[in-house]
Amino acid sequence: MSAYNWDLIERLLHEVQASAGGNFAPRAIAEELATHLEQAGESVGSHDHFKQCAADYEAVLLKGGFIEPRPEEQGGNGENYVLTERGAQLLNLIESAAPGSEGPRALLDEKGMAALVPEVFDALAQELARAPSVP
Length: 135
Known about the structure:
mainly alpha; Transcriptional regulator
């Protein structure tokens, strides 16, 4: 079991990218993902718990410098965000997992809850960037 639900975090980060002019609503995003996963035959457990995880992840991503408030000149309204360079790195890592192969997600999981601590994440991202890619 991973410390984080990377599918949910990936969805949240994509929504951050698309949230200009609108409010970022992590609980609604989690509800949509939970419904989608259940329709695909996966169990997500309690939707309320899943939505709470999304709200908690918003705080972790903000505190860790993965997202920051969107500037007004970019459509910021005080309730939406932009990805930082760190957030873009995280999204790239968790998106790059090929089906059936967890790759970077497994390395993030090895770090447990510390995976999204800035210093831990930055060191891991540097390590992965130096690693030779496997065809």
